[in-house]
Write a structure and sequence with these properties.
alpha/beta, Aspartate Aminotransferase, domain 1, Aspartate Aminotransferase, domain 2, binds pyridoxal-5'-phosphate, identical protein binding, aminotransferase
Length: about 375
């Protein structure tokens, strides 16, 4: 059987990982400044993570959501403590798309309404509602097309206000990433997030903060929306939550009430996934990784700006992007092939940095030296 060929792949296969390093099948070492799409939050193969999952596997790996789950309660308590959202309620699932799907569905159940407001440049996943709210027609299948989604221009307060004035009583949810990731590291302004909060309150709509990529401590606060001083009604999360173990979830403000059977999943919140997520939060807390991500982000962004060769260096904490000028258009390829550094991209010419929140300063330095050398290569004409 062949693989269904949907992914553009780099010519590398990895066999081992530790901290911020990866090794390929020939034993060559790579620096990971991308964390496999922002997933590696506490570093590869963290000893506490391995220990917690191994120990859990030796006890019980899985049972479905039909029994008491003290591990889920332990996870909810720790997530409340580390995120500062103690009074929220946790529902666990398996991926970012599934988290957004559940968030939007719940918003619709709660309000009895159908309309979802999303923004230009947004990426919310590939399941039916999540992809319909994603601003990329090429990945929306005809069956996913929905008259229930309205796209408004990102960071345009006047357009948002005007839409609510006309259709506010139909809006079930507004969904927004605090920093658009796939969209190219575009930050939602504080004023825009505050307007969303105000209008959702005024018209009884649900504010969904997609924190799948920008959340879980990546920006130096637990949720990037926290920087704007707003509280969303639902936060969706996944990627960094399990450091590679598939787990996602939503946390839900106390005024949204559950009903039996309203949401559900077979695998979500199983014993192994909870053990992985608990290990991640314990490391984030014990190693003070939010502060570290904030500090390392400032260090990296200052250094990137100082090269003078990159355009629009932007981001927060360890969610950083910059535009690659035309004469360095091979930069990402050079970084991988010549300097063995993994980075991410966003169309048309953005490099995205999404390393582990535990990225040591020495490894950040290795990246910066590689970048300096790559930028000094003969320019592409
Ligand atoms: C902001 C955002 N939301 C949702 C998703 C979808 O997550 P998943 O691939 O786990 O379904 C992604 C994935 O890149 C994302 O960046």
């Amino acid at each position: 059987m062949k693989l269904f060929d949907v992914y553009p792949l780099q010519q590398v296969s990895l066999e081992k990982a530790a901290g911020s390093f990866l090794w390929d099948s020939e034993g060559q070492r790579y620096l990971d400044m991308y964390g496999g799409h922002a997933v590696i939050s506490i570093g590869h193969s963290h000893p506490h993570y391995i220990h917690r999952i191994t120990e859990q596997l030796q006890q019980i790996g899985f049972y479905s959501n039909s029994i008491q789950m003290p591990l889920q309660e332990e996870l909810a308590a720790l997530l409340g403590e580390v995120s500062g959202k103690q009074d929220y309620q946790l529902f666990l699932c398996n991926s970012g798309a599934e988290a957004n799907e559940n968030a939007l569905k719940l918003a619709s159940f709660h309000t009895g309404r159908k309309q979802v407001v999303a923004f230009t440049g947004a990426f919310h996943g590939r399941t039916s509602l999540a992809v319909a709210a994603t601003d990329n027609p090429s990945i929306i299948a005809p069956v996913n097309e929905s008259g229930n989604i309205v796209f408004l221009p990102f960071n345009d307060e006047a357009a948002l206000e005007a839409h609510f004035k006309q259709h506010g009583d139909q809006v079930a949810a507004v969904i927004i990433e605090g920093i658009q990731g796939v969209g190219g590291i575009r930050m939602a302004s504080d004023a825009f997030l505050q307007s969303i909060r105000r209008l959702c309150d005024q018209y009884g709509a649900v504010f969904v903060a997609d924190s799948v990529q920008c959340g879980y401590g990546r920006t130096g606060r637990f949720f990037s929306h926290d920087h704007a001083g707003v509280q969303a009604d639902i936060y969706s999360m996944a990627k960094g939550m399990g450091n590679g173990f598939p787990i996602g979830g939503i946390i839900i403000a106390p005024h949204i009430q559950p009903k039996k059977g309203m949401l559900g999943t077979t695998f979500g919140g199983n014993h192994l996934a909870c053990a992985a997520a608990l290990a991640v939060l314990e490391v984030i807390r014990d190693e003070n990784l939010l502060q570290h991500a904030a500090d390392m982000g400032t260090y990296l962004m200052d250094a990137l700006q100082a090269t003078g060769a990159l355009e629009n260096v932007r981001g927060r904490g360890l969610m950083i992007g910059f535009d690659v000028p035309e004469q360095h258009k091979n930069l990402r390829k050079d970084l991988l092939e010549r300097y063995r550094v993994f980075t991410g991209e966003a169309k048309p010419n953005v490099i995205r940095l999404l390393p582990s929140l535990a990225l040591p300063k020495a490894e950040a330095g290795l990246f910066l030296s590689a970048l300096q050398e790559a930028l000094a290569l003969p320019v592409v004409v």
